[in-house]
Amino acid sequence: MDTENLITENISYPHELERIYRKDPKAFKKSFTHVWEQNPDSQVLGVWYERLHFIETANKEKSSLLQKGFLFMGLLAILAGISTRIIFHFVEQEAIAPINLIFGVIPFIAAYFIYNNTPRKSVIYFLVALFLISGFYLNMLPLNYKDSIILTYLHLPIFLWVLVGLAFTGNEYLKGSARLAYIKFNLEYCILYASMAVSGMVLAALTMQLFSFVGLDIADFYFSNVVLFGAAALAIVAAYLVSMNLKLAKNITPYIAKIFSPLVLVTLLVYLITVIWVGKNPFLDRDFLIVFNGILLGVLAVTIFSIIESDQDKKKNISDYVNFALIALALIIDSVALSAIVFRLSSYGITPNRLAVLGVNILIWANLIWIMLSYMRFLQNKSGPSTIQDSVTKYLPVYGLWAAFVIFTFPIIFK
């Protein structure tokens, strides 16, 4: 018996219709239209009609949106590549600082997020104004490498990263869940971009080697016009792919968090014991103090990475205790670094570098205390994992405000 007759005979039996559909969905869909035309008053067939055609409509809408977003992403990627190449030309002429290259990429990523999740006009105007002010202010500064100027260059990416976060979260910038999604985006973005960048480097090396076989050295031309353009365009493509819920990065980040957290903990414990054993002193050794602060930032990044990728359920596991140990270790490192910085300030006076490092360490110290207290409450079953994640997401704007303070005041205070 053909499928059309089966549908007609079982028109009043939803269970049998479902069984027929699952047995051969293609034949069911093909025969259904004719049966529906013969029995337009059947409520059962009416439900099936909506079920089948809703799926088709949803797919068409999704395909249309995907195509529209893809075209806009492509346009932004081309514009980012062209802008970066133009900016690089002025950098080569030593007319502007190399840090300006960041404006060839970051604003276009923000533009994609605004397009993808359009916020209120006030938020858009605010973002545009801050990007313009940042770019204008940066190029009004003297083109030298004094401490206050270098600190401005170092803090500018942090400030712009926060602005991109505002574009990403849109109207929900005050919600912890939106900020959490932004941090997760960054983790997945870095993994995906790094993967594609490695492929790009292999292609670049292969291309230059092939041209070298015919006696042509295209290294300078290829870097300036192809690699630079590709690196900038790839940044927009990676943002698009991650926002499209690409599964590669999403599947790998939790495993990286679980593998690296205990490895970092063991490595740092061995390192600190070795430091004590050989008698290194961050109070007197400036270079070692810089390394010490670098370690602190690395531990903080790994800790946040692990917290963000932790499970949302309330069950504790070994990873939570590893994270807590990492936080405690980071707090010890930060306390030592803070003491060393205060010592150097009182002994050798105030400089832009010392003041900036002091500010960063105070901010990190306060953040670590908050995270540690939240983790203690979680481990004592007094709160859920969301409290820990709140201690990370709610503190993010503080880093942006500090970066803005350094960028817009240090060059003026320390002329």
Automatic annotation (TrEMBL):
Keywords: Membrane, Transmembrane, Transmembrane helix. The chain crosses the membrane at residues 70-90, 96-115, 122-138, 150-169, 190-216, 222-243, 255-278, 290-309, 321-343, 355-375, 396-414. It comes from the Bacteria. The keyword Transmembrane applies. The keyword DNA damage does not apply. Coiled coil: none annotated. This is DUF4153 domain-containing protein.
